[in-house]
Amino acid sequence: MSSEKSKISIIVPTFNEAGNMHPLLSRIKNALEGENYEIVIVDDSSPDKTADKALEAARELGIEGRVKVIVRNGERGLSTAVVKGLENADGDIMVVMDGDLQHPPEMIKSLISPIIKEEAEVSIGVRRGKGYQGLSFLRRIVSKAASTLSKILLPQTRNITDPMSGFFALKKEVFRRARGSLNPKGFKILLELIVKANVPREKIKEVEFVFERRRWGESKLNSREVFNFLWHLLNLNEFRILKFMLVGISGIFVNEGVLWLSYYKAGIMLELSAALGIESSILSNYLLNSIFTFKKRKAGSFIGRMARYHISTAIGVLINYATLLVLSKALHVEVLLSNLIGIFLGFVANYALSERFVWKELSGDET
Ligand code: GDD
Ligand code: MN
Fold it and tell me: Which of 2, 5, 71, 266 has the lowest CB atom count within 10 Å?
C-alpha cells in the first residue's frame, strides 16, 4: 500500500453537533491537505440540524465533493452509526473520530501512519496521563474502571492502554472480517471490532493524543450507556464470568458438604477436615471451570493449569481474609458485610488470575 494511493475515509458519528461541523471540517481539510480522503458523517436526524450544517460547511470550504452525509431516521446509537459509516465508506483506511473536536484532526496523519507502513491493522489514539484533560474527574474514573474491567474480561484487550478510545483507525480488511458477527451496542465499537475480527496484539499500534475539552454542545454518555457497556462486555466475554460465579457457588456446597461428612460423620479432626473441604472445592471448581467456563482453552498442560489454579485461589482466599480483617477491625465495618466485600474482591482476583494465568492460552477456535 503506498501512501499516495490509499484513500482515507473519516467516519464521524454525530448527534446534535451543529456548532462543531464547520471547525471540524475545516481542521480536517487543513490537516489532510494533499491526501486522498473522504469524510462520512452519520447523523441520527439531530434536532439541531447537524446534517444541514455539515453540508453547508462543506460547501463553504469547497470540499463538498469529499463529504458524504448519511442521515438515519428513527435510529440512535454511536456504535451502529459508526458501523453504518464503515459500510458506506470506500477508503482503504478507515478513521473513526468524534464530531465534537475532542479528537484533534491534526492527529489523523500520525494515527494512520502505522497502517500505511503496514505495521498495524488497527491504530488506536490513546490517552495517557495529561491526555485525559478534556474529561471531568468522574468521567476519568468511569473510563479507567471500564478499561480495567474490559482488560479483565476480554483477553484481547489486555495489553491495550486505552480500549475505551473512540479515536482509532483500521484497515478496511479488519471491518470486512468482523462484519458478519458484529452486534454493536452502545459506545464501544472499538472493542467489538478487535474481538470479532480477532486482531492479534502485535497488529495493534497505539498513538498518544490529548483528548481536548468539548467547546460546543454536550456529551451523550449517560448511565444508560454505562449499563449498555457492561452488558456488551459480558456478551463479548461470552458470560465466562457468570459461569465462573456459578462454579464458585457450587464450590461452597462442596466445601461445606465435605467438611460436614469428614468432621461430623467420619469424626476426623477439624484442622484436617477443613483442609479436605477446601481442597475438594478447589478441585471440583477447577474441573468444572475446565469443562464449562473455559472449555475452549485446551492448550497447555492440565496439571500445569491445575497448579496455577491452586496458586490463583490462594491469593483470592488471602484477599478475602485480609479485606475482612481490615474493614471490620480498622474501619469498623460490620463483620458480615466486610466478609461479603472480601468474598467479592477475592472472587474478582480469582477470576482475573484464572483468565490471566490458568486458562490463559487462547486455542485457535476462540473468536
Ligand atoms: N449518530 C450518532 N448517534 N452519533 C452519536 C450518538 C448517537 O446516538 N451518540 C453520540 N454520538 C456522537 C457524538 O455526536 C460525538 O460526535 C461522538 O459520537 C462522541 O459522543 P460524545 O457524547 O461526545 O462522547 P464522549 O465525549 O462523552 O465520549 C467520548 O470519549 C469516550 C472516552 O472517554 C467518545 O469518544 C467515546 O467513544 C469514548 O469512549
Ligand atoms: Mn465528546
Answer: 2
Nearest ligand, measured from the Cα of 98:
1
The domain locations on the chain are 8-236, 240-366
All three cell numbers of 139, joined, read 468521567
Full-model pTM:
0.79
In whole angstroms, what is the distance from residue 248 CA to residue 242 CA? 10
Averaged pLDDT, groups of 10, the chain, 367 residues long: 76 97 98 97 97 98 98 93 96 97 96 96 88 79 86 86 92 95 80 92 94 89 81 90 91 84 88 80 92 83 87 82 79 74 79 78 48
Which residue from 22, 28, 27, 23 is spatially nearest to 8, judged by alpha carbons? 28
The size of the chain, in residues, is 367
In this prediction, residue 227 carries a pLDDT of 80
Closest by Cα among 136, 138, 163, 137 to 149: 163
Closest of 346, 343, 342 to residue 323, by C-alpha: 342
Topology classification of domain 8-236: Spore Coat Polysaccharide Biosynthesis Protein SpsA; Chain A (3.90.550)
Task: Please give the C-alpha separations between residue 133 and each of 159, 211, 276, in angstroms, as whole numbers.
Answer: 23, 6, 53
b/e sequence 173-187, b meaning 16+ C-beta within 10 Å? ebbebbeeebebbbb
Ligand 1 centroid to 282 CA: how many Å?
44
13 ligand 1 Cβ < 6 A: yes
> Which residue type does 264 have?
Y
76 CB near ligand 1 (under 6 Å): yes
Contact (Cβ atoms closer than 8 angstroms) between residue 224 and residue 179 = no
